[in-house]
């Protein structure tokens, strides 16, 4: 028997999904912020114990460990990345600060700009200039470059970003600059724009390169430490890491551009959602993930989780690499409830895992959403909570909410907890409305898929607010992002710049660029022990009309063997124009019939299909009634009353659970609010249905 393990580290819990044949085994471990690799190894040890194995035996049987990490995200949130310098073309020192004049809220005159990763004293320029056609206009001044290195060295920089004008067309100067910086600033992490984002526009490329330099040492340092612990423990294969684009790849590949893992944790859940929704006949989904620290929202359309390059609003830096679009709110189980100027607020500050909510009994003193759920009777204080791994206590919780009630000037502790429940639910519903409205989508047309440890506790009431009548809750929802990493395929998505009118192409140049990208993909997949004949490729083009600032990506040839470029023929340009016009019409509902589009770059998206958890759908009523295991006093939105509690282990496919009721799974609680019913489908997953 061999195993595949998916891991996702959150602010409060580290989640594990063990794939054993077709069986999925879930586990949750408190995160260890001081060294997150310790929490990973501790959880792997407990999984080994569940299988009756020593850690070394278990790791020796693991054919793949796939990891989604929030190291890059946390580095940007906490602003504790490497001391970073920037070396750029003379005259472009302040471009990174201009931000194209962009401001997230144009009406807020007091909105401060994002904290500078590279303040002006660490942004230095050197004489050099490459023109748009790749010709050298001004040679690189190596003496000036060495002087810039000396100044950065005196400032004790740990990382250096290099971004020269038009290096994506001709990287000669950046390559030489990287050699010199390596000599002059030893042990510095170096991020060169032609390696991180080899395309225009200039600001996108520079911003992405700077952020990559800032988070790079933290990401690579963490992954190296984890790999070392895994190898010492007996793991014999390469660590696979979740990418923000929705694919996974080896740690060695990620080392080249660590920014690829930014937001990779949430991406795993979205990929898992697309897989599950498609299997259950729901290709259009609103995905909501409520964990311990945050509430993540994303959309799946037509069974696909689109990856987009652009503004990462959460961190306020432009990130040019493809990322599965996830919007985040500071609304999780650990979000702290407090009174501000007489108004009740929930979040965004979180109690995390240390000390955590008051009910954890780990020293927390501020009331949280989880504490409110304990007060409302939604969460159990029995010893069997979370599979018996730990229990919740009401000690200190009532007093904390009474303080909230006193500050509000009305009600008691239970009313204050209910008010916190209402506020956090309203915050999440409003967040969904903003996300869907911005894309012109009506939530009523979607099926909600809820996951995360706390998502199913709020899912039905949120769906009712939004006009949604069906909610999917996978049995694996508490560790769904970890499970999603096992669904994601090993993927390489890279591009190279090539600018030319579509009716005046150098087809040999395009063939050479795609060949170079194919060889690069072959190397990394081969190093990861995949055979070349397993690799399937989408050969893509980036195209635009003359004068447009941004390009659209389109598939020129889909799902072909790696290196098979036999589709390139004399009609290459004409077919490219036809495909682009179709793509432009689909995206913008118009085309410029009398204009010839231009190619701005070529892309290669290569992947290997690997085993993934099976998902199926369908609900066939068995007629067998469920039996409640117990009853407790709870408030499900209509005041306190005795509520039946069902245990997930007692429910069988085909059963229907009436409302109001509570279903306790090992690591999550599903609330069946008044007016809803829960059905257990053929796969053992849940669907909540209105009416």
UniProtKB/TrEMBL annotation:
Residues 507-682 form the Acetophenone carboxylase-like C-terminal domain. Residues 4-184 form the Hydantoinase/oxoprolinase N-terminal domain. Residues 205-492 form the Hydantoinase A/oxoprolinase domain. Coiled coil: none annotated. InterPro entries: ACX-like_C (IPR049517), ATPase_NBD (IPR043129), Hydant_A_N (IPR008040), Hydantoinase_A (IPR002821), Oxoprolinase-like (IPR045079). It comes from the Bacteria. PANTHER family: 5-OXOPROLINASE RELATED, HYPOTHETICAL 5-OXOPROLINASE (EUROFUNG)-RELATED. This is Hydantoinase/oxoprolinase family protein. The lineage of its organism: Bacteria, Pseudomonadati, Pseudomonadota, Alphaproteobacteria, Sphingomonadales.
